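Anyone up for a design puzzle?
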């Protein structure tokens, strides 16, 4: 959804356009909240699938020879 047109409608002088713009802005906010909630839930599910390494000491030190 184009947020610029919503903000333009809110700042305009017409009361009907302002009311519609505010409703659209509210819907955009709700959609963003739902999207971020889904993103966090999917991340939490994927983190449950991650298992600890069998050798946790590997990768703790780097030996570089030039």
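Challenge accepted. My sequence:
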């Amino acid at each position: 959804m184009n947020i610029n047109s919503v903000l333009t409608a809110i700042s305009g002088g017409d009361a009907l356009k302002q009311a519609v713009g505010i409703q659209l802005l509210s819907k955009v906010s709700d959609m963003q909240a739902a999207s971020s909630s889904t993103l966090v839930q999917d991340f939490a599910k994927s983190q449950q699938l991650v298992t600890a390494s069998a050798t946790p000491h590997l990768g703790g030190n780097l030996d570089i020879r030039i």
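A detail worth pointing out: Helices lie at 3-11, 15-48.
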